[in-house]
Amino acid sequence: MADPTTYRPAAGTIPTDPGVYKFRDAHGRVIYVGKAKNLRSRLTSYFADIVSLHPRTRQMVTTAAAVEWTVVGTEVEALQLEYNWIKEFDPRFNVRYRDDKTYPVLAVTLNEEYPRLFVYRGPRRRGVRYFGPYAHAWAIRETVDLLTRVFPARTCSTGVFKRHRQIDRPCLLGYIDKCSAPCVGRVSADEHREIVEDFCDFLAGRTDQMIRRLERQMVSAAEDLDFERAARLRDDVGAMRRAMEKQAVVLGDGTDADVVAMVGDDLEVSVQVFHVRDGRVRGQRGWVVERSDDGSMGDQVAQFVTQFYGAQVDLDSSVQVDDDRVRGESIPREVLVPELPDDHEELQHWLSDLRGSRVAMRVPQRGDKKALFDTVARNASEALAQHKLRRAGDLTTRSAALTELHETLGLDAAPLRIECIDISHVQGTDVVASLVVFEDGLPRKSDYRHYAIREAAGEGRSDDVASIAEVTRRRFLRHRQDQESPERPTLDPESGRPRKFAYPPNLFVVDGGAPQVHAAASVLDELGVTDVAVIGLAKRLEEVWVPGDDEPVILPRTSEALFLLQRIRDEAHRFAITFHRSKRSKRMTESVLDGVPGLGRTRRTALVTHFGSVARLREATIEDISGVPGIGVATARAVRAALAEDSAPEPAVAGAPAEVESSDRVEEATGDR
Question: How distant is the alpha carbon of residue 529 from its chain centre?
């Protein structure tokens, strides 16, 4: 691991102009490429205190052995040079938005003498034009089946094409007029290419003019009394309209736009793009990539736009270099994004140059475009959740995570049972804790536990350390009792299964850093528990703290062990927050109802159980309240009067500046997650 100070350039030697920089490793390979408006300001940030850097950035600067830069005239030039270098060097620390291999596309081999239409999955190839992606391969085949009666292009493989050329007899599609049969010379190579180009124009969105042209030909044929040809053209127009109907209209004004949504966590970012042409969704793409640094959403948008549209134009250029229409068709007139990057004006200028006409980048605020953006964002969120579930549900992945924890933490065995605790409160009030259990890398929800903290610090101040010590003591007192009472059965007499807490965890995880870990470890020492390993997971840098160590253990960002620990920690936090909110809501409801004539503890409990919160109780009518068993009309009126007097709004559950769910959870209380 290199020391960044060994290759740090003197600050005065770095220019303040815009430019592009490269980090190289000890072997001279480029490992990262970036751009900056001010090279000195940007490069200096890489050589700050290494502890304050994002883990991926920290790994990059300690892997690098040299840094170099190139000054350019404008920020647009820096944007272009950065993209070219990323494409040339493929740096390992740059996030790459590669094509999703999951969704099929319709490929058109324009690089062949007789172009072919076929369903394709895989990386893009030069000289091949792509349409989609589509959700299912059958959707492509249905579209092709409808359109080949209008555009009878070749769909057979090279082997089939050569065989029918040798036997000088077309295939079945040639006999039913769904292929122009270039294999037997029914059309020339130029005529067949013209058919394919018309097919591509139709799929690219140039539909209205083609339908109008066919309708004119149909009318002309009818006037000439060529009714057979007119009927065939009528059927062709119908087939084209049916193909268009399969693509739902989402924007009625004929919008030409790409809608980009991003949803992420501390480790990964899910990106979804809907391609809307002429108001219709023509395709969809998705990626889940590793988060590169602590940059804002705008920075991630800038990275994506640069790489995605630069690559698309390169692919378009490889098809027909002299056709500007094809070259720029992958770039829409509008790019709708979740947040504008700082250099969005330069990005707009760069995209406009690539397209050959103005391109606008903006954040949708209202109307149909905002509704469509919300739909794309939901797709991105779902894709991220599915990605995590696939990782968590895979047996090989779980085994690798447990093995890595075993080796990295120096445990006696793989931690087949892991328990994690988390504390939740609002400025020291209503302090609660949760305990979640994972066995073999999967949650065991029947073993989850809630704790109401008895020894929480007073005077409106929270003390997570003391709360963690209390929960640890209460959890392991039962374990010690089991050890001291060997005659106590470890199996449930009714089910025959092991009692839920008849055995301890292999690994005990606390949400926090060194102080929290020390508190839990001290309790275990006090109770004489020696067969349980304790660690803490600090949220800021995702550091793993071990008792007695002055420095944390840093797991790689791609580590399956880190992913498992984060999932367990997040589950504990979710479980604690749920209990805390219900407990606070119950307390607030009961406090409002204190002193209501004729309303004792039993009836208060009945109201709390029935309505669930103060807000719902305030919305209830006298008839609704009197409908609760044990509550009469007179008592219901008294409850309504008490609620009218106490009109102070209920504090928000999350997001209010005055609330902090936990001392190390400020990020979530302010809405960062």
Answer: 41
pLDDT for the residue numbered 300? 86
| Full 3-state SS string of 73-123 | CCHHHHHHHHHHHHHHHCCCCCCCCCCCCCCCEEEECCCCCCCEEEEECCC
Query: DSSP class of residue 10?
Result: P
Look at residues 514, 549, 508 and name the one whose alpha carbon lies nearest to residue 531. Answer: 508
Which residues fall within 8 angstroms of residue 650, CB to CB, at 6 or more apart?
585, 588, 613, 614, 615
Report the chain's terminal Cα–Cα distance, integer Å.
33
Model confidence band, residue 427 (pLDDT cutoffs 50, 70, 90): low
Strands 417-426 and 280-290: unpaired
Place of tokens 């579930």: 389
DSSP conformation class of 182 = G
> Which two structure tokens, joined as six digits, stand for 429?
């009030």
Residues 6+ apart with CB under 8 A from 670: 655, 657
Residue type, 510: V
Return all residues near 200 (Cβ < 8 A) that are at least 6 apart: 108, 110, 129, 131
Angstrom distance (rounded) from CA 426 to CA 435: 19
SS3 186: coil
DSSP per-residue letters across 416-474: SEEEEEEEEEETTEEEEEEEEEEETTEE-GGG-EEEE-SS--STT---HHHHHHHHHHH
Cβ neighbour number for residue 369 with a 10 Å cutoff: 21
Angle between helices 227-245 and 137-147 (to 10 degrees): 160
Residue 433 in contact with residue 451, Cβ under 8 Å?
yes
Q: What is the dihedral of CA 371, 376, 379, 381, to 10 degrees?
A: -90
Peptide bond preceding 133 in cis form (omega within 30 of 0): yes
Max alpha carbon distance in the chain (Å)? 104
* 3-state secondary structure labels for all residues of 486-497: CCCCCECCCCCC
Question: In this structure, what DSSP letter does residue 598 have?
Answer: T
Structure tokens at 603: 């009836």
Token code pair at residue 364: 């949708």
This prediction has a pTM of 0.51
- Judge whether 410 and 548 are in contact, CB under 8 Å: no
Report d(CA 101, CA 244) in Å as an integer. 25
Q: For residue 435, what are the β-bridge partners?
A: 421, 449
Cα 358 to chain centroid distance, Å, stands at: 30
pLDDT at 126 over 50: yes
Dihedrals phi, psi of 227, to nearest 5 degrees: -70, -30
User: Would you call 248 helix, strand, or coil by DSSP?
Assistant: coil
| φ and ψ at residue 36, rounded to 5 degrees | -155, 145
What Rg value do the Cα atoms of the chain yield, rounded? 32
The Cα–Cα gap between 429 and 462 comes to: 8
Q: For the segment 221-265, what is each residue's pLDDT rounded down to a tens digit?
A: 888 888 887 887 887 777 777 666 555 555 666 678 899 999 887
Scanning 101-226, the segments in alpha helix (DSSP H) are 137-147, 158-167, 172-175, 189-203, 208-223
Pairing of strands 449-452, 268-277: unpaired
